[in-house]
Amino acid sequence: MNYKADGQFVTAGNPLASWSVCNFDNRTPDQAIRKYCCRQLSQVDADSAENFVSQLVNTLVKSGCPVTNKTPYIHKANAGFNLEGIHGGLQESAKQAFLQSKKDPQMILVIMPVS
User: Fold this and answer.
1) Phi, psi of 108 (to 5 degrees)
2) Using alpha carbons only, how large is the chain's radius of gyration in Å?
3) Cα–chain-centroid distance for residue 85?
4) Separation CA 56–CA 92 (nearest Å)
5) pLDDT tens string 6-45
6) Residue 10, beta-bridge partner list
């Protein structure tokens, strides 16, 4: 365990190599997920969602978690407000994370719509 100057204790983990984003929010274009940071958690739009992934990667790296895949697969899912749609979206995200890295997914970041 390492001590950081800000008083946090962190343990080096396995690199984040296999992950994806499952976007159930119809308002967020697929290409927008990597570029802009969320300003309000209640509003995921084209200007905010894309940078969230970049900020997440930067935060993980600064916290001692290496990220080898900095551009995860982004799946635009349509939940249709039923369990089958949610299951299908998550399943496709997991499959694409595996195909991209040839490893079981370590994380699936889910973006849900706000009602």
Assistant:
1) -125, 115
2) 15
3) 19
4) 22
5) 656 556 668 999 999 888 877 655 444 444 434 444 444 4
6) 2
pTM: 0.71
Q: For the segment 84-104, what is each residue's pLDDT rounded down to a tens digit? A: 888 999 999 999 999 999 999
Task: List Cα–Cα distances, 44 to 32, 39, 41, 72, 92, in angstroms.
Answer: 10, 8, 7, 18, 21
Contact yes or no for 97/105 (Cβ under 8 A) = yes
* Helices and strands, counts by H and E, the chain: 2, 5
Burial 40-62 (b: 16+ CB within 10 A, else e): eeeebbeebbbbbbbebbeebee
Token pair listed for 79: 């939940």
In the structure encoding, which two tokens stand for residue 85, read together?
Answer: 């749609």
Structural contact between residues 71 and 30, judged by C-beta atoms closer than 8 angstroms: no
Both tokens assigned to 114? 């706000």
Which amino acid type is present at position 42?
S
